[in-house]
Batch of 4 targets.
Target 1
Amino acid sequence: MKIAIVGTGYVGLVSGACFSEMGIDVTCVDIDEQKIARLLEGEIPIYEPGLEELVKRNVDAGRLHFTTDLTTCLDDVEVVFSAVGTPPDEDGSADLKYVLEVARTFGRNIKKYTILVTKSTVPVGTAKKVKAAILEELDKRGENIDFEVASNPEFLKEGAAIKDFMSPDRVVVGVESERAQKVMTKLYRPFLMNNFRVYFMDVPSAEMTKYAANAMLATRISFMNDIANLCELVGANVDNVRKGIGTDDRIGKRFLYAGCGYGGSCFPKDVKALVHTGLENGYHLRVIEAVEEVNERQKYIVFEKLIKAFDGGLKGKKIAIWGLAFKPETDDMREAPALVIIDELLKAGAEVVVYDPVAMDECRRRIGDAVTYAKDMYEAVIDADAIAIVTEWKLFRMPSWAIIRKAMCGNVVVDGRNIYDGEELKELGFKYSRIGQK
Ligand code: UDX
């Protein structure tokens, strides 16, 4: 079986590598010539554990190809996946220009029955627009070639992308015919052999499922952050509350960790886009809107705790930031809380020293030399007045506090991810604060 995947971002590249690992012949397409040139050299543009080996193995086996031109493989493939970006417009809606461009190229060039499957997260109703764009191009050609559109949202998490793709909890596919369903079944059977959990449904429901899933997860986080902030005021501990509620099967244990806010390429964008879709349809999604509001506020919480620790005077204080990526195991800093915290600290006149195991280059690219880049987590704390933990990398979980205490000139530790034992740190003479506990 042969397929093409347009867009070699996170979703496109991981999907391409994983499909090819299952023996499918995959051509990955991207208009970015530099990116394709790098990929052909075996260079992976993103940090994702295991991806480099996977790509190399399948390129060497001759099952995974890269090109800048979709038309070179279009005649051979049964399915074209569209995994191009949908950056948010100023008003929060998803910009579909790349998605529709793929549709037009598809319409201008197909010669036989082919399915165009949208994998990018796109608002409900996009499939209709994609179909219209293809029909328009076919019309211009004066040809009547059979084709179909389908929706197959991707649920993989950065940092665990390969595992998530290889053994997904479920695969959701929106189709318009049995013929397309058969093709998609063939494609996904290898991934879910024994426990085949592909949910076929109508296209709008598939499009909606992705947004509902992300909005639900984001809601859990903002809910817990709200509860955490109240815990601090009433003298409760949010970690106890989390355990207390998570053991209820209906609630479940996962995704209930309070912290300094969610970031990344999905939650912030998708939550905004969903609110926008609601408004476009005359419906005000009040809960989801509040989720976004709470998260924006939560990104300031570490800064506020630092202000409090120094009685408002951060001018000239040296603050070490541990963790820049929006979560561990990635170098992605899109919408990362660290960006807000650093910005506020600089505005307050603090000196900022940062360390992250993989996101240093990304940080340099974004904020240049406004901050100092430390060689390691210990160098970052030399002469620091305070440490703020922003990303819960494993590396930060059990540091040598005695060394740190000596190296610092102050003793403030603000734990934005609740990874330390407060009692232990207090005994060592640190002034320790965390999220959701007074
Ligand atoms: C998310 C969805 O999980 C995935 O299904 C979808 O396809 C894309 O969006 P990702 O953006 O990779 O994936 O990150 P995820 O691991 O879900 O974490 C998102 C953010 O939530 C991170 O900033 C993380 O720190 C935060 N988070 C997560 C919490 O603050 N508390 C939690 O309990 C869980």
Note: DSSP finds 17 helices and 14 strands in the chain.
Target 2
Amino acid sequence: RHPFTVNSHGHLEIGGVDAINLANDFGTPLYVYDVSLIRKNARSFVDAFEELGVKAKVAYASKAFSSIAMLQVIQQEGLCLDVVSEGELYTAIEAGFPSERIHMHGNNKSRQELQMAIEQNIGCIVLDNFYEIELLGELLNLQNKEMDVLMRVTPGVNSKTHQYIMTGNEDSKFGFNLKNGQADEAFQLLKKYPSIRFKGLHCHIGSQIFETDRFLSATEILFAELAKWKRNENYTPEVLNLGGGFGIRYTSEEEPIPYEQYVYALVEEVRKQSEEMDIPLPEIWMEPGRAIVGNTGVTLYTIGSMKSIPGIREYISVDGGMTDNLRPALYGAKYEAVVANKADQTPIKEVSVAGKCCESGDMLIWDLPVPEVQTNDVLAVFSTGAYGYSMASHYNRFAKPAVVFVENKKAKLVVKRESYQDVVKNDLSYL
Ligand code: LLP
């Protein structure tokens, strides 16, 4: 069910490397990524478009997990990159990512961020609000430069996911609303800035979505707007960006569909709509984040204290928690795990996995089936590749864990474990 194997010692193997050796060599908590799986996920989107012979761009949403090594792999696979902040853009530049393949998002891009995007000649800015149109127009005029942009719109589609990661509904902080005429107004405003090359529309309906129908409804709504602009303004888009949000498997509750199915369904819908509206087939862009890295990452922890409340529950505590995986505490997200040094043993009981932060809510997994467990066993939590490291914090002054990439049976440290000097490095004395 998770894409990993068990070796003859009964240990979990990640990318052909024994998880217990990884824990011993690099310490815990440790994020481990199977790079061949990252490549496979990335290719499944790209190949599906190629197979259909459709002009497309697949941008990895780097918010899911951004580090220099990660972006190097994404570049090797020929994807584009979606950044949402100066920090993500900076990381991309440090990784040597080709700037023309970078797209920038954000609902409150600062002057400095836009300035940096212009200076770096990035490929596209996804405009989110009126303030930003004026700011970008002004900055481009000042520097006598031009920029490709997309307009982010909210199609008013509910995406059947957690409220915090639902973004395509009408009451959203992101983008221009279609229903109340804001997108029309934005269209008119864009005409005032010849330096802004308006390439088309963007929408992202949410995250961890499993059905294609929501994406199809969003596409239909976007085309209704485009048909109007064609009629009234003789405008036809070159690009249609349908965002990310493709769901992955965390537990047996989720049954993801193969990623190419999204590509097939969307291409078919875009073809159908553009024929009906007599609009030339636009380039189709997508922005998967979680779908590319989510299932490729595993977090290794060492089990420490254990507490049994007879008749109620058994707790086992690990050496990390909400500081390296905020998702259970923030979204009630569920995970599966195995005892990595006993991966061949049959579970005999259930335990609940606690993090070590000073918060009752710092629970990683409730009621996890396990074999007999002991202190110093290694727990491997699956599907932590997306929004784990990227949402890690220093709460309780924890140092951020290391990240290791595994490929072809070799492990390589790609993000160092923070030291306590790192944790206090910006603190200044008051004495
Ligand atoms: N494009 C845009 C404009 C987005 O806002 C997002 C995610 C993506 C693409 C990528 O979505 P993905 O393919 O990864 O689902 N921290 C949350 C997820 C927040 C997603 C925010 N936007 C979580 O851990 O579930």
Note: The pocket of LLP is lined by residues 61, 64, 82, 105, 165, 167, 204, 207-208, 243-246, 287-291, 327, 386-387 (CB under 6 Å).
Target 3
Amino acid sequence: MCADMDLIFLEVKPSVRPHFWLSPQGDMIGTGERSKASAFLSSHSLKTHGSPERMKMKLFNTLTQSLETFTPLDDTVRIYVCGVTPYDTTHLGHAFTYVSFDTLMRYLEYSGYKVRYVQNVTDIDDDVLRKARELGVAWDELGRRETERFLRDMDSLNVRRPAVYARATDEIQNIIEVVQTLVARGYAYVSEGCVFYSVKRDTDFGAMARAIGLEDYQSMLTIANERGNFPDDPRKKDPLDFVLWQAQAPGEPAWPSPWGPGRPGWHIECSSMVMHYLGPQIDIHGGGADLAFPHHTCEIAQSEHYTGKAPFSRFWAHTGMVYQDGEKMSKSLGNLTLVSDLLKSYSPDAIRIVLQNHHYRHPWECFEEDLKVATDTAELFQQVRALVGNETSGQDSMLHNRFKVAMDDDLDTPEALRLLREAAEKAVKNHDLAVGAEVLRLTQVLGLFGKK
Ligand code: ZN
């Protein structure tokens, strides 16, 4: 069985288990237009259950470390999820993050909201350049190829693409404008063709870091150094300062800027894209748990001092790490389960179910037995589909309400699936078309039955 490795992981101060909270991961999905299936679901839910059902949903906010009632700024929920760095193929950890946010968006739409979803792809980055050199291919060709593979994998899992899938290399001018403003306001400084953000100048810096248990400067620096920070860079005033604009290194691609040729840092890319495509304040910012620090901590600092508005994001939602052989699944460790490999043996629905059988905030490890159980569940839902056929008008208000209670409780998909399995067994056993029709509708809210 799948082991929920530490069920309170994201709810406890990470000082209890800092290496869990803070290990690396992070990547995402996307598409803009609502699918026909989703349009059907929304219209059907309106017809069946009355006016758009504004949820009383609770979501866990990493920044406040508490469950809060979800209330968007207006009728359109603005969501940004940090995307992939395209230099390797999609593993189960990526899939967990993007399926989790796909499920959240489907549920928000089912509950009557419009959703505008933006995701980035970091197509210029140290890792992309290194991998391109190893493979002997052009960095931009590698980025295009790996981005396409990622999107294909996500399409296979019925993960809808964002409204905007923004590439870092298309965002350079906007990024430069944000960096210029931060320099002008004294939060950033120029040094030998680079621009760095000054953490000591920013007395607000680190609220997210403190929320996850990094209480002081030294603990922040230790984790930042594990995650790509170069503390000994002589161009920096302080080891924790982070790069906004990186001067061109020999042989690397570069774009012109007021500080000389170079390329943007990673953190500023996301801040710029959020503000460009969604505005100065958004409702939900998501990503893998390891992105809370330093990436999201830096995003908050840059964005709020650029716009003068806080909070940058109303909610910060982070997905738990996925483990394999007791270690976090990551490119750097090489212990990857690739989605494309799983799809050779298991159906897309079985893979989605195995992911949704774990709460989005919990770290977990997946075993083969889990995939077999999920395959059985997918087959059970197929039996319901065969039973119901075209008789899809039936309802089960009790099941519908219990499903909503589960999903409103911080997107409790494991409980929602348990309810649907139980109802599906009854529907098949009793040839109950009404219950079966409700089961079918709700499985589609979870994004199942996307692929025939
Ligand atoms: Zn990001």
Note: The chain has two domains: 3-365, 368-445.
Target 4
Amino acid sequence: MTETVVRRVAIVGGGLVGMLAAIYFANRGWQVTVFEFRKDSRQLEDTALLSNRSINLALSVRGLNALKKPGLGLHEQVLGSVIPMKGRMLHLDKGRLVSHPYGVFGECINSIDRAQLLKLLLDTAEELANVKILFEHQLKYCDFDSGVLVFENHSNGSEVSQTTDLIIGADGAYSTVRSQLMRPVRMNFQQEYIPHAYCELNIPPVTDADGRSKFAMDPNHLHIWPRHSFMMIALPNTNKSFTCTLFMPFEEFEAIKTENDLMSFFQKHFPDSIPLMGAQNLKEEYFRNPKGPMMSIKCTPYNYKERAIIIGDAAHCMVPFYGQGMNCGFEDVFLLNDFLDKFNVDDTKDTNEFRESLDRALNAYTERRHTDAAAICDLAMRNYIEMRSDVVKPLYIIRKRIEGALHAIFPKHFIPLYTMVSFSNIRYSEAVYRWKRQGLWLSIAAAAGDGS
Ligand code: FAD
């Protein structure tokens, strides 16, 4: 017998991943309620203060692919507001600049404003009749078997409860849904802080002779100042400024106590950036902006039966050095939807059948996704060393050139790791496997070359 019931999903966390999930589930015809702890970021003047996260992000193929699927013009609108970056621009000692393209076929990653992207997702979701977004609602507790969630409404201090068919935890690295899941689920959990922190700085636009505002550096590159044990990067913004991020061990940040300390540090390590930032601006930003920690989280499984699942940073938080955290979270949403299709999770089925198919879909998703999430968490950690140190080593540069040349000749059979991760939808674990196999062939070829 078929029932005409509307399936309900409660999404905890109205960040980037939670809002994309809301749009996907609304598209499936579910009744969606998003509970977000913070105030509506669209009402705030300084969105950077609210997010306490990076101001801009690198969006690549996996993220773009997930934005395409629900239609609604998301993909086109996003592409209209990004700045393509075709490679890394290395700022070496004495201000020497070297460009390393990301791909041999002109592939680009895209710089996008976090607040603008979140606004687009919030606006799109809000226009859908079956989506409700409740801000200032903080999840306190959930009972998965009965599908009951309890929130504190911070606007009036009241307690709010909601019953739902499915709970999605998209509540970020410090996820409450994940901690709650650890009670009924035998969850393996691994968390690692790195010794580095990050601090955001800013390079404002410059004014040309005609009074027009322009970028102070080439906007179509991701700029890197690699300094071995630390580094600074800069991504362009549409207002012609750059957001710089200084990654450095906590102790180094703590050693900079005065403006003089700061200026001598920058004179020594990043002298070419001082005139770009402006000394006064640098001092203000450095001492005002937070020094954020970075960590990597792996856990499994992601779901509890057909009742709850975690996605995005709640399931797999990674250090930001591969620019994949959000991309991977968007891909989670795309794949989860795909698994619901594959396992015929159809709301017109009777409740038992619906629950059984949802259970199979969530189990299959979690099994497959964990392998890939763990792979990208490890790659992100590895890229932490590559970006700040390896990029200037001659062997690294030679290897990159050989890989690029082989990819140009055999585009389907030899694909550099960065290309597989950032410019394809190849599973992260498969990318790692292929990269290791390719490395082996390169070593065999080099050994054969030595022997001849
Ligand atoms: P979040 O963005 O953390 O959103 C979680 C939401 O849940 C928040 O709005 C929070 O308020 C809410 N919440 C939390 N607890 C509760 C609760 N109890 N009840 C209700 N709501 C709750 N990724 C890229 O792809 N490319 C990049 O270039 C990139 N650069 C980065 C640079 C830096 C410095 C950092 C730190 C990260 C970067 N990332 C990047 C990673 C990216 O920011 C994250 O992967 C992404 O924001 C994860 O989105 P999310 O929605 O899962 O989590």
Note: The first helix runs from residue 16 to 27.
